[in-house]
Specification:
Elements lengths: L7 E8 L4 E4 L2 H13 L8 E6 L6 H14 L5 E5 L5 E5 L2 E10 L4 H13 L10 E8 L2 E9 L6 H15 L13 H8 L2 H18 L18 E9 H14 L3 H17 L3 E8 L16 E8 L5 H17 L5 H15 L7 E5 L13 H6 L5 E9 L4 E8 L3 E8 L6 H20 L7 H5 L4
Parallel strand pairs: 6-7, 12-14
Antiparallel strand pairs: 1-6, 2-5, 3-8, 4-5, 7-8, 9-13, 9-15, 10-11, 14-15
Protein name: Condensation domain-containing protein
Pfam family, one: Condensation
Length: about 450
């Protein structure tokens, strides 16, 4: 028998005081569109979390924790329906049943958890199913681990952090594990339908109209012939040196470490493409509404970032990149259909489609760096500890995707995926190592952007 197949199932009935329906939030609409565009591969957006069950917990304690979590957070008892006019709506159930899969692990609970994580993450959620799957891994019939798989339509990373913390506290038996009141996605819909939302939408439309009128219509005007296939490898660089350098630069210049990385990426892309203006899609958390910080939902929307890359120094570019990124994040809360119309109108005026297919995801934290004091020599000597590898294949639905993760001050991880027509596979490693080298060099001394090709050995 397949050792990942469930050995049993247990049902959890829930009953909550609220049952209601309404439109999707702006961020949910964005994600629902991404789901619709990528089906059946929308499993790409799934997230998983693995929890160690406290020693004294039994199956009944786990199911009780799941029940209370689902009853508290409406996102986990929400399904999506589409009207006859094609409009998606969310329906929050007041009661229902969750089915938890039981998997007996024996002595290899870690190996089974890893296999289940891959299996569950690789199955997309349908609109009419609960957006949370729960698997309980047992040893001799007693719970050892609990695996959550969550649809991105229900929770982004911050929302999943909120739910995960609550679940851990529930398993621990804490009485105040859940808040007395909590903001829900449909409460967010009400805010977006209010004058507050109208003003935010108007500001966003004005910003996007100004910005799309000035950015290049594409970041990659010159392309190689199409490469057969729909998948490409991902290049991954784990760099202690970049982690140290980004934190040093962030602290010295008053920016986030991720902002320093973004400047390095912009310098390289400008050098690679010849564009003196670099336009990228960032991702805004959009949790500024009171109560939204502790909401279990998806709030992330794309932000349009644009920065001019002049004949100036790299440290000047870091400062201007930081300012431009804050401006982009400030105007990333909007109704997706309005912004879609803005881009479409601009494309018609310019006589060519505006491509917004180059994106940067920053998971390294959003706060400014705390001062750290490694010497330039310490940063430089960390370079040999960098490790490059190729990760799982990536579907080519974007031209370029750079992901920043890890911990500034210790190690950063850069993952880059691209359409080979714009950045061939051999250049993936050179690109991420170029980011690293620019950051490390800037700690030693500032330099002119015209020196980038010589400093990195790239794109000459």
């Amino acid at each position: 028998m397949d050792d990942a197949a469930p050995t049993g199932e247990i049902t959890v009935a829930f009953r909550a005081p609220t049952a209601r329906s309404g439109l999707l939030t702006w961020a949910q609409r964005e994600m629902w569109h991404q789901f619709s565009r990528t089906r059946p591969h929308h499993y790409y957006f799934n997230s998983t979390r693995l929890f160690r069950v406290p020693e004294k917990c039994r199956i009944g304690d786990v199911t009780e924790a799941v029940r209370r979590l689902v009853e508290c957070y409406e996102a986990f008892r929400t399904t999506i329906g589409v009207t006859s006019g094609g409009v998606p709506r969310q329906h929050v159930a007041g009661e229902g049943v969750y089915r938890l899969a039981l998997h007996e692990a024996g002595e290899d609970e870690g190996g089974l958890a890893e296999r289940l994580s891959y299996e569950y993450r690789g199955r997309g959620f349908d609109d009419d199913e609960w957006p949370l799957r729960v698997a309980v891994i047992t040893r001799a019939g007693e719970p050892a681990l609990v695996l959550f798989t969550v649809s991105h339509l229900a929770a982004d990373r911050v929302g999943l952090d909120v739910a995960s913390e609550a679940f851990v506290r529930l398993l621990a038996g804490e009485r105040d594990a859940l808040p007395a009141t909590v903001m829900q996605p449909l409460d967010q819909v009400a805010v977006e339908d209010s004058p507050v939302g109208e003003r935010a939408a108007a500001r966003a439309v004005a910003y996007w109209e100004r910005t799309v009128a000035t950015i290049p219509h594409t970041m990659f005007p010159d392309r190689s012939p199409a490469v057969p296939g729909n998948w490409s490898p991902v290049g991954v660089l784990r760099s202690p040196a970049a982690g140290l350098a980004a934190a040093v630069l962030g602290a010295e210049l008053g920016v986030s470490p991720g902002g320093a990385v973004l400047a390095a990426a912009a310098a390289l892309l400008s050098t690679r493409t010849g564009n003196t203006t670099v336009a990228l899609g960032l991702f805004a958390a959009n949790r500024s509404v009171p109560g939204a910080r502790d909401m279990v939902s998806t709030c992330v929307q794309p932000a349009l970032f644009s920065v001019d890359v002049p004949a100036a120094s790299f440290r000047e570019l870091i400062r201007s990149t930081w300012t431009s990124s804050l401006l982009a994040y400030r105007h990333a809360w909007y109704p997706p259909d309005l912004i879609g119309d803005v881009v479409e109108r601009a494309s018609r005026r310019r006589g060519q489609p505006i491509e917004l297919d180059c994106q940067v995801q920053d998971y390294s934290g959003y706060s400014r760096a705390r001062p750290i004091a490694p010497s330039p020599q310490e940063v430089h000597t960390a370079l040999p500890r960098s490790r490059f590898s190729r990760s799982a294949l990536w579907t080519r639905d974007q031209l370029l995707l750079l992901t920043i993760a890890g911990h500034p001050g210790s190690e950063l991880r850069f993952s880059v995926a691209s359409d080979p027509a714009v950045l061939p596979v051999p250049e993936l490693e050179r690109f991420v190592r170029g980011i690293e080298l620019l950051l490390v060099r800037a700690v030693v001394a500032d330099f002119e952007l015209g020196e980038v090709p010589e400093l990195t050995g790239l794109f000459r």
